[in-house]
Amino acid sequence: MRIEKTKESMMAFLEEKRGKGTIGFVPTMGALHEGHLSLVRRSVKENDCTVVSVFVNPTQFNNPEDLKTYPRTLDADVELLKGTGCDLVFAPSVEEMYPEPDQRTFDFGDLETVMEGAMRPGHFNGVGQVVSRLFDYVRPDRAYFGMKDFQQVAVIKKLVELLNMNVEIVSCDIIREKDGLAKSSRNLLLTAEHREIAPLIHQAMKQAVAEHQTQTVKETIQKTIDVINESPLLEVEYFSIVNDRTLQPIEKWEEAMSPVGCIAVQAGEVRLIDNIVFK
Predict the structure, then answer these.
(1) Exposed, middle or buried by CB within 10 Å (0-12, 13-18, 19+), for 274?
(2) Range(s) within the chain of domains with CATH label 3.40.50.620
(3) What confidence tens digit (pLDDT) does each residue in 241-256 have?
(4) Longest pairwise C-alpha distance within the chain
């Protein structure tokens, strides 16, 4: 497994691989966990060469403190990746990725006006900046993303469409802890108290799915928020039930084939997101 820190050396390595088979790519911000590793293993299974990037992208953070505290564990990440079959780790510096400020703006339409887009202004534009650069450097045949970031996957598919990029976006199921908490790099930052109560988020959403046929959309949303907010350690920022294609909120269940409940919860200093499909 190669580790490269410059785009020139990374691209030179990939030129030898290109044309001999498909290239799979897993972009990450590091602090790797089983969710990331499941994406890497799938890429290894489906491609001839797999690249993983480890880069904490500053342009997608609208909160400087969040950027400062985001976990950075490159040595541990490399050790985890050694057992996956990954061929190349690309771990650039900020200066390598952004020798000049990126002034580009992207229009993702209504996909970025709701939920994370509404709560984190500029976040998805930053995602577009870094992912488009990484796609330009790696030129993968397939790129793998976890569905925990449901809205982000939709935005990246739109990005590929806007830039006419020839890459298949592969979305993969959420990987959870045994107690149901969605695996996330941010889980490392939870206090013991908040980690203990955090599975309530998924429990409340599962309860919502189980009961939704006897409730309106509005009732389901309010009950889920109330269940989570009963804990003094958790505070729901939003819980939206949206059309799975447009990401726009629905008012009636029949407005979407597979409505998706998307949630953001503040657990002390840590912000957690999750989602669930209403079958």
Answers:
(1) buried
(2) 2-172
(3) 999 999 999 999 999 9
(4) 58
Going by C-alpha positions, the residue among 93, 124, 98, 96 that lies closest to residue 111 is: 124
Pick 65 or 267 by higher pLDDT: 267
Q: Strand pairing of 270-277 and 234-242?
A: unpaired
- Which tokens is 124 given? 């998805």
List active site positions.
Answer: 36
Domain with CATH 3.30.1300.10 in the chain: 185-274
Please state which CATH number belongs to domain 2-172: 3.40.50.620
Give the CATH superfamily of 185-274: Pantoate-beta-alanine ligase, C-terminal domain (3.30.1300.10)
pTM for this entry: 0.95
Q: What is the Cα–Cα distance from 259 to 277, expressed in whole angstroms? A: 6
Q: Is the distance from CB of 86 to CB of 1 less than 8 angstroms?
A: yes
Strand partners, 208: none
Q: Quickly count: other Cβ atoms within 10 Å of residue 66's Cβ.
A: 15
